[in-house]
Amino acid sequence: MKSLFPQHMQLVGKVMDMRLQRQNVVMSNLANVRTPGYKALRLEFEEDLQAALGRDAKGKMSRTEGDHMPAKFSPEGFGPDFHRTFQPHVVHGDDSVDLDKEVGVMSKNSMMYNALATVLKKNFEGLTKIIQEGQK
Amino acid sequence: MDFMTAFDIGASALSAERTQINITSMNLANVKTTRTPGGGPYQRKAVTLAAENVDSPFSVHMKSALDRELRGVRVMDIARDQRPFKQVYEPGHPDANQEGYVLYPDINVVEEMTNMMTASRGYEANVTSIETIKNMFNKALMLGT
């Protein structure tokens, strides 16, 4: 469906949501840095995201003939199902929380989040600009 | 997931670490205490931490699997350390027994300092994570401007 907002903006918003969830998971780990028996959690979504976007080699068809159906990813098939596949996994055998690792994950995550927010902001600014230019 | 879950988790950790520092200061302050309201020398206290659900038990059922995995932290118990008292020969001390020995709490200053540093670093890590989530939220709010 065509709309005023490009589809990748939806995607950016979803990824920002996931990054926020990852931040929550990291905070849960950091809070329990000294709790005995607590197992560190991880939230992984990059690989699933790549698969959903068709960026990895899995299930990707090459188009060798002009008559072939285009095997293109459509962000419209991006529903709550997709969300449900993200489960935090517990790292067994690694009882305590590794502070360095958590802080590393956290800063990387927040930088990416901020970058995505900037991307989204620029998108909105672009839209505004187009609207304003059309008015002249 | 609530918008503010991250703050709840961070706050629970800050309060737990602060309790640990309070208890450590209490232990350090009472290194030489021979009289307590309960009688006998001061007994060293130890803090036990436990992972805790972020929300009330009812709201836990209303949430997604991911949210149920998130844990804050709380102080489960402040236990009395059962290690034996230190005996020091001080016949002139008012609390000395018949043989002239005074019972002092067996508190290792190095151990307490280590606990304090660990708690203080944990506190700092949690402050940093709260700062980070604040930045993220601010960045999201900036989208509208």
TrEMBL record, chain A:
Its localization reads: Bacterial flagellum basal body
Q: Tell me, what's a Pfam family for it?
A: Flg_bb_rod
Q: Which residues lie within the region annotated Disordered?
A: 56-77
Q: Which GO terms describe its cellular component?
A: bacterial-type flagellum basal body, rod
Q: Which GO terms describe its biological process?
A: bacterial-type flagellum-dependent cell motility
NCBIfam families, per database record? FlgB (TIGR01396), PRK12621.1 (NF009264)
**What's the protein name?**
Flagellar basal body rod protein FlgB
Q: What organism is recorded for this protein?
A: Oceanidesulfovibrio indonesiensis
From TrEMBL, chain B:
Q: Origin organism of this chain? A: Oceanidesulfovibrio indonesiensis
InterPro entries per UniProt: Flag_bb_rod_N (IPR001444), Flg_bb/hook_C_dom (IPR010930), FlgC (IPR006299)
Primary residence: other
Any keyword Nucleotide-binding?
Answer: no
Q: What do the Gene Ontology cellular component annotations say?
A: bacterial-type flagellum basal body, rod
> Which BP terms from GO are recorded?
bacterial-type flagellum-dependent swarming motility
- One Pfam family matching this protein: Flg_bb_rod
Give the Flagellar basal body rod protein N-terminal domain ranges: 8-34
Look up the domain of life of the source: Bacteria
Q: Which residues cross the membrane?
A: none
Which UniProt keyword terms apply here? Bacterial flagellum, Cell projection, Cilium, Flagellum
- Annotated protein name in UniProt: Flagellar basal-body rod protein FlgC
Places the protein is found: Bacterial flagellum basal body
Q: Where is the Flagellar basal-body/hook protein C-terminal domain?
A: 98-141
Q: Which family, according to the similarity comment? A: Belongs to the flagella basal body rod proteins family.
Self-association or partners: how does it assemble? Answer: The basal body constitutes a major portion of the flagellar organelle and consists of four rings (L,P,S, and M) mounted on a central rod. The rod consists of about 26 subunits of FlgG in the distal portion, and FlgB, FlgC and FlgF are thought to build up the proximal portion of the rod with about 6 subunits each.
